[in-house]
Design brief:
The protein is of the alpha/beta class. The chain folds into 3 domains: 331 residues, TIM Barrel; 227 residues, Rossmann fold; 85 residues, no CATH class. It has an 8-stranded parallel beta sheet. Strands 13-12-14-15-24-23-22 form a 7-stranded mixed beta sheet. Helix 1 packs parallel to helix 9, helix 7 packs parallel to helix 8 and helix 11 packs across helix 15. It is globular. The chain starts with a strand and ends with a strand.
Length: 671
């Protein structure tokens, strides 16, 4: 398993005393004693100050000694890998000393240069060659570091500085467009994307060419915000997701993406109650809930912390380090054997065109492309199914072990991905497309078996049940819904429109009540193709679940998946959702990480999340497919036998449980 790592934030104003009472040896001993194998510690922060006596940058004016070097040396001697943190794209001192290096977001106002604190700088100015690379070289030559962590990717943002203007003018014969309404905005997005990966690759290769074993990561690069294969020189993926909102569920989303990557993935979350915004610690159960979620998906939890300006551990850091060291020991004791592999029957697909737009106009400009993916991920978990999230660049490898691929409101996919998915379906796989038919090279995907009107017909509809019940009503889904016409697909469910409401109408302030008759317009279709099937759901259920989390949508999807994905490797039957299953499979055994995502409290205004203990108990039934096996020799958790039921007719092993703790690992040893 990937082990534990720690990130020490150290952004400091010029007035703060730095390193006046250091104890790096105690820090290293605490980290090593808890089994922390790697840390990130600051060489240069957003304010632009270096925390070592640099001859190229600006040492912090109130620093005593060599804070970075003392920590790096002590941790190296304790057997801990050290990554140097360098702010990439924010450099207060660099911008103040060289205003020409600053980013220019609005050419009518020029660069924003603050008297202190942060300044956004542009990596396409001489900043990279005159400051960043010399500092990188200085660190490589002087300190026992094993790599670099670069932050933030705001460096790839909109910029009208003279270097960016000159480069764009040389390539395209005009100035950079000022607004997204300009027809050249997509050209500018493609320009920014090309330059971003050029500079990232150049900096990474500068390090790895002279030190091949170095680890190099750029925060967020290659993750779901930038879902494509990264250039040589980027050796790992790192994301520190939003510090507001549910923490363990966000960790699950990013780790589910990281598990399919072609390189290691670190998922960062903070030990601090309000993200990076204060020094108050989060309750410890939340650290465990989130960390185990990341481990379960084969990624590494990177605990975001703040190093005290004295250059020693704060008591809250010591407390968290010891606690997470204990959690790690407990996870290691129950972790699957090395030959086990994570088995995700479902893969949600995301790619550059989904995130940036087919014309690249949204490159690094917004994050809306992940909303339907995030909603679908949460919807599947609440429906009881495990899933992976894959970039199109890794789709071919992922499809080799996947049974159902999902395109959740993907506006476009590449021709290569479309061909892979078509072959996958013909060979017996399933494909579920929701919310829209993606385009491929400018043309709509033409093998779904349906045609879709461009103009939306309703902005909310109701989905009938596959298995009608007097105790359950049709399920409401918000979002644009277009009329469909089947060509060679069969209609499984017809949409029910809201009572007497046309597009844009509301019943009072809210959505319209349900009509008493079907609309005759297909909502869910299936086209059999080769040995598999293509399912199309017109409703944008992923986005709606991300927005309002209508739980009945999860129950509805669970019913649909009994047909689209019969006998999954594992499935959870639960009235409440909130429990995730992550299966690991070897020839002899199956291990299922069960994670209780419940118990988080969200503050009203800032949505600060915190989990206390104990977590809510959820009665569940864990179902495991026999997959041709005769049955189990033993079903256990933490060494204790568990009761189970075996249905050889359906090929399902059922384990009833109450998830009244944060996590447990159920182990099935097969006959």
């Amino acid at each position: 398993m990937q082990r534990l790592a720690w990130h020490f934030d150290f952004h400091s104003h010029e007035s703060i005393r730095i390193g006046h009472d250091p104890d790096p040896s105690e820090m290293a001993a605490e980290l090593a004693g808890a089994g922390v194998e790697e840390i990130i510690t600051f060489a240069k922060c957003h304010t632009g100050f270096a925390y070592y006596p640099t001859t190229h940058g600006t040492p912090h004016p109130r620093m005593r000694g060599d804070c970075f070097g003392e920590v790096a040396t002590a941790c190296h001697q304790a057997g801990i890998n050290v990554l140097a943190y360098i702010s990439f794209g924010i450099d207060g001192e660099g911008g103040r000393r060289h205003p020409e290096w600053a980013q220019v977001r609005d050419p009518s106002r020029g660069p924003h240069i603050s008297p202190d604190h942060f300044v956004s700088v542009c990596p396409y100015t001489p900043y990279t060659d005159d400051l960043m690379l010399p500092m990188i070289q200085e660190i490589i030559d002087t300190y026992p570091v094993r790599g670099f962590f670069f932050d933030t990717m705001g460096a790839m943002g909109i910029c009208h500085c003279r270097w960016c203007q000159a480069d764009f003018r040389a390539r395209h014969g005009r100035d950079i467009p000022l607004t997204a309404e300009d027809p050249a905005w997509g050209t500018y997005g493609a320009f920014r994307r090309e330059r971003a990966w050029d500079v990232v690759g150049r900096v990474g290769r500068y390090i790895t060419d002279q030190s091949p074993g170095m680890k190099v990561g750029f925060n967020w690069v290659g993750t779901s915000r930038y879902p494509e294969r990264m250039p040589e020189g980027v050796t790992c993926l790192t994301c520190d997701y939003s510090t507001t909102g549910p923490q363990s569920l966000q960790a699950s989303f990013h780790a589910a993406y990281g598990q399919t990557s072609d390189r290691t993935c670190d998922v960062m979350y903070t030990i601090i109650n309000r993200g990076w915004g204060d020094w108050a610690p989060r309750p410890l159960p939340g650290l465990e809930q989130t960390g185990v979620t990341i481990w379960a998906h084969g990624c590494r939890p990177y605990l975001g912390d703040r190093l005290h300006p004295t250059n020693r551990l704060d008591p809250m850091s010591r407390r968290a380090i010891r606690f997470m060291g204990d959690v790690q020991d407990r996870v290691v004791a129950e972790h699957p054997t090395p030959d086990a592999r994570i088995q995700a029957d479902i893969a949600i697909v995301i790619g550059p065109e989904s995130q940036y737009g087919s014309d690249m106009s949204k490159f690094a400009a917004d994050r809306s492309g992940t909303v339907p993916i995030q909603g679908m991920h949460r919807l599947l978990l609440d429906a009881g199914h495990s899933c992976a999230i894959t970039a199109e660049d890794t789709l071919e490898d992922v499809l080799a072990t996947t049974r159902l691929a999902i395109l959740s409101e993907n506006p476009a996919i590449s021709p290569e991905s479309a061909a892979l998915l078509k072959d996958f379906v013909c060979a017996g796989g399933g494909l579920l497309i929701t919310g829209t038919i993606p385009s491929v090279a400018g043309q709509l995907l033409d093998w779904t078996g349906v045609e879709r009107e461009d103009a939306p017909w309703q902005d909310h509809i109701y989905l009938p049940l596959l298995s009608p019940s007097e105790e359950r009503s049709p399920v409401l889904v918000h979002g644009p819904f277009s009329r469909l016409r089947t060509t060679d697909a069969e209609t499984l469910l017809e949409a029910i429109q809201p009572y007497d409401c046309a597009y844009g109408m509301r019943f009072g302030h809210a959505t319209g009540p349900i009509s008493f008759e079907s609309s005759g317009t297909p909502a869910l279709t299936r086209k059999r193709m080769g040995k598999g099937s293509v399912w199309y759901l017109e409703a944008p259920i992923g986005s709606d679940y991300d927005n309002v989390a209508n739980y009945w949508q999860a129950e509805w999807l669970r019913d649909v998946l009994t047909q689209a994905l019969p006998a999954p490797t594992v499935r959870i039957i639960s009235d409440a959702g909130n429990v995730e299953a992550v299966p690991h499979v070897s020839p002899e055994s199956t291990w299922v990480f069960l994670i209780n995502h419940g118990g988080e409290q969200l503050s009203f205004n800032t949505r600060t999340a915190r989990t206390f203990g104990p977590v809510p108990p959820y009665p569940i039934v864990l179902e495991i497919a026999l997959a041709g096996r005769s049955g189990p020799k033993r079903v256990s958790a933490a060494g204790a036998d568990l009761a189970f039921e075996l249905d050889t007719g359906s090929g399902i092993l059922s384990v009833p449980l109450t998830m009244d703790i944060i996590w447990r690992v159920v182990q099935i040893d097969w006959e």
